[in-house]
Amino acid sequence: MGWNPSKRKREEMEEEEEGEVELSLLEALENSQGQNVQALDIRGLKKLVLSFERRLKENLEARMKYAENPEKFAESELELHEEITKLKTLAGAPELYPELVQLNTIPSILGLLTHDNTDIASDVVALIQDLTDEDVFDDAQDPATVLVHALLENNALELLVQNLARLDETDPDESTAVYNTLATIENMIEVKPTVAELVCERTKLLRFLLGRIKPREFDSNKQYATEILAILLQNSSANQRRLGGMNGVDAVLQAVALYKSKDPKSGDEEEMVENLFDCLCSLVMPMENKERFVKAEGVELMIIIMKQKKSVYGSAMRTLDFAMTKFSPACERFVDVLGLKTLFAAFMGKIAANRKIQGGRYQEELEERIISLIASLFDGISRGSRRDRLLSKFVESEFEKIDRLMELYMRYSDRVKTETERMDRLQLDDLEIDDDERYNRKLESGLYTLQLIAVILGHLWYSDHPKIRARVELLLRQHCLSKENVKGILQEYHDNIGDLDGPEEKERAQTKVQKFIDAM
Question: What count of other Cβ atoms lies within 10 Å of the Cβ of residue 16?
């Protein structure tokens, strides 16, 4: 029998001397465990592997021989479980991973993922999760790469996801196995980012994750499923399109809709909801998914969430920003369902005080998102009654929206000026800052938002509305500025428009900005 801490506690209360004996036994146990870890070398590894392979063979033979009498192979199952557990000590010696691969042990380990006893399969999942733990890999990048490559070569992804399908999450141990499986996939992506697309190409993981985010009840595995889904979508247009084709946009919207009028109950649940919004933002990057978002009434849902002013207010606005960027139908729908009133209330800072305010930086990000949304609306709605309704927002209430816009222009202009002066001082101290780094630092200090404000001013000026022009000129004079200042910001923006969306899109964007510069 092993040392029993609860028993020790009872005995301590009865007899102090026995308590001291138990304590010395514990120390001896800890010392022996430490010696085992320290002693693990290639020779020790080979002994572990040999013992594991022997127990594996015995179990398979016993299962075949006594297929109709489980009691007769139960002991071999327990012994196999113990050998798998012993292999976990390898996590303390990742430098031995290449040797483990050379010994051709990986196929034997992965083969147990299809074992009839799901407890054994769960043991293997826990083992692989331990071996691929990010804390282990941080200190051993090369061995980690060798191990992950071997896992991929031996169909680990397929076997892990196949095992997921047969696990019963109402069983605590099998629920843990689900969590460990997702953790293992995340660990493998960390070492080899291409795994994010490989796992979706080769397996039905996306389908599993979609099913996992549907239940109304919150649990840790639902949270982790949203986290893995967000990782898979984050930098992969292939995965974004793949999930979109599986009705994924609608599924994620339904999961988000549970929080349109209520806040998450805990920090973990709040994190899960943010993961769902991260998924949405990634999902609506491809044009076909923007269309699906509009058809699934995603614009309406986000506006409802904003009106409710719950904790996901900013996340809904962020999603709209992604969905409406360079997509006119979403912008048109936004105007049609009366989103302008909600957006410009936020623009003017009229957000209910009972909202969950998350600090100054949160407010800044919200402000920048609002500016981006207004710029997207101007870009997406070029003519007609919708354009007139957008422009009228800047005329109503004695041009208060233009006043607010100029207030923001001055604030972000001051930030960029401060950063520019700081970099100039660094140059004087002989610290080299090339043009690209200089521009990027300015962007980080607020230049991009300043550029968007200048673009909105350009749209307002180009509308040829005499009262709007007069108000802009008046405010520029009051701040001792001229149109040349705005034109300078627009010119810098024009010159730095990239071709990430193709040369035609770059030319279109530059032509539009040039019209503003010429008009001013």
Answer: 9
With tokens 């996801």, the residue in question is 161
DSSP one-letter code for 73: T
Give 59-78 pLDDT, tens digit per residue. Answer: 999 999 988 888 989 999 99
Reading the block at residue 91, the tokens are 């996590």
pLDDT digits (tens, 9 = 90+) for 215-231: 888 999 999 999 999 99
What global pTM score does this model have? 0.86
The proportion of the chain whose per-residue pLDDT surpasses 90, expressed as a percent, equals 76
Angle of helix 237-244 relative to helix 267-283, nearest 10 degrees, comes to 90
One-letter amino acid of 231: I
CA atoms of 238 and 320, how far apart (whole Å): 22
Which contacts qualify for 495-500: CB closer than 8 Å, 24 or more apart? 496/439
Average pLDDT, the chain: 89
User: H or E element: which one contains 505?
Assistant: helix 503-519
CA distance 403 to 222: 46
CATH fold, domain 43-203, is Leucine-rich Repeat Variant (1.25.10)
Q: How far apart are CA 283 and CA 238, in angstroms?
A: 10
Q: Are 415 and 446 in contact (CB under 8 A)?
A: yes
> If you search the block for the tokens 């509308």, which residue do you land on?
463
Task: Count other Cβ atoms within 10 Å, centred on residue 183.
Answer: 21
Q: pLDDT tens for residues 75-101?
A: 999 999 999 999 999 999 999 999 999
Rounded distance, CA 477 to CA 430, Å? 38
Q: Tell me, what amino acid is at 254?
A: Q
Domain range summary for the chain, segments of one domain joined by +: 43-203, 397-519
Contact assessment for residue 110 and residue 56, using Cβ atoms and an 8 Å cutoff: no
Q: Encode pLDDT of 455-484 as tens digits.
A: 999 999 999 899 999 999 999 999 998 899
Q: What is the DSSP letter of 282?
A: H
The whole-angstrom separation of Cα 515 and Cα 292 is 33
What is each CA distance from 479 to 403, 413, 417, 472, in whole angstroms? 12, 12, 15, 11
SS3 label, residue 276? helix
